[in-house]
Fold this protein.
Amino acid sequence: MEANVVQELDVLKGMLNNWKRGFIGWASADGDNEYVLLEFTEDIQQHLYPYVTRLRQTKHLSDPEAREFMDYCFNQVEDLRDQLSRTEIGENQKEA
């Protein structure tokens, strides 16, 4: 993989992590945060997936590299799910 592609993927990862931090702010104390995860997933599918697909089509990324990057993206959704559940548990403990 070319250095400029690695740099571009790093920028995309930074953007993704900024989105994730923003979505944490959407967390509801009642624990119904499925819509937050759905919005985050949709952003990945609408903005990052087409970009990565184009990098793969133009041979800037191999299939395994593209899969690895998208796995990273969707692992961030699971990480957000974990963070939201910890937020919910923390809020419930404060109420008790």
User: Anything to note?
Assistant: The longest helix spans residues 63-95.
